[in-house]
Amino acid sequence: MLARHQIDAPDGRSCEVAIGHGIAGAASLVLPGVARVGILTQPAVELLAKKLAGDIAGSGLGADVLVLPDGDGAKNLTTVESVYEWLNRHDFARHDMVVGVGGGALTDVAGFVAATYLRGIEVSYLPTTLLGAVDAAIGGKTGVNVGGKNLAGAFRHPSRVVVDLDILAELPRRLLREGAAETVKAGFIADSEIVAEYERSGLSAAIDIVVPAAIRVKVETVRDDFTEQGRRAFLNYGHTIGHAVEIAAGISHGEAVAIGMVAAGAISSAAVGFPDQHRQRDIINRIGLPVTIAGLDREEVEVLMGRDKKRDQGGLRMVLLEGFGRPVLRHVREDLIDVGFAAIGVD
User: Fold this and answer.
1) What is the pLDDT of residue 308?
2) Strand ranges (DSSP E) for the chain?
3) What is the mean pLDDT of residues 175-189?
């Protein structure tokens, strides 16, 4: 075991996060006293989910598998309703639990279902992507898309998150690249070791270094601010413009966050004197993530940004960097948004 963390929430719930090699299984994911387990998964990892179901059944429990659409195709209320109906057909009760096996979109949906079915049942996650492991699976945010990114959701910790580094080590480069956006983001806001490792090695950065470090950043931030009243907002670095670009361009979350960080870096330089705008862009580019986006309708991006959860009476709040490891939250004027758009090729 490389690391084990516990996060306690104000509602009395706690989440255990385990990181190691070869640790995925019934013993690590299923809580004592559970009678039946519903495994929600995605087509790409259906075999892994069925293997886990066999492991759970071997321990004497009931285990059923439901395959949901890939990616954001699952993050809608239609899918959520279909999962509720599936749980009904299998007679799930308050003492049963859900296990989410898949990427960040899958664990978002699994968590939302568990938070709302029967007013709350237990859930554990086995993230199978780097993006899910370092970000979506940890922190208790659940949600689905309703005309905008994650506009319906709840704060509720899973009981356990099991990050098996053997699973992550086998990921195709495409998924490593997408997950690297959230991993290096953790470095930009809080950990110079992550930044240095990606600057040295690009996409070949050592999983055993960057994953535990990025998870530590997420865990420590969430411990301090579960419901995002303060410090937790720093985890949104790159997301304000990134989420709008993701929906408008139909690109992956990691690609959109990378572009959003380039925009936020340019705004940071203009607004608070961030000295490493170009170094940050070079690191993102070295990983193989995009730093610009072509052909977007600026008006559509602005409309989507207008729905952002981080907008308040004072205007649009963005996470900016005064330096690596020195994030700040600022209201951003329209002319500074123009600077960010120009940096990523939106005009």
Assistant:
1) 63
2) 3-8, 14-20, 36-41, 62-67, 97-102, 122-127, 141-144, 152-155, 160-164, 311-312, 315-323, 326-331
3) 97
Q: What is the pLDDT of residue 310?
A: 58
**In this structure, are residues 203 and 177 in contact, taking their beta carbons and an 8 Å threshold?**
yes
User: Which residues lie below 8 Å from residue 284, measured CB to CB, with a gap of 6+?
Assistant: 181, 184, 258, 261, 262, 291
Pairing assessment for the beta strands 160-164 and 3-8 based on DSSP bridges: unpaired
The rounded percent of the chain whose pLDDT value lies above 90 is 86
Kindly report the CATH number assigned to the domain that includes residue 160.
Answer: 3.40.50.1970
Last residue of a domain, one of 169, 198, 217: 169
* Rounded Cα distance, 186 and 183, in Å: 5
Strand, coil or helix: what is 226? coil
Domain count, the chain: 2
- Which residues share a beta bridge with 241? none
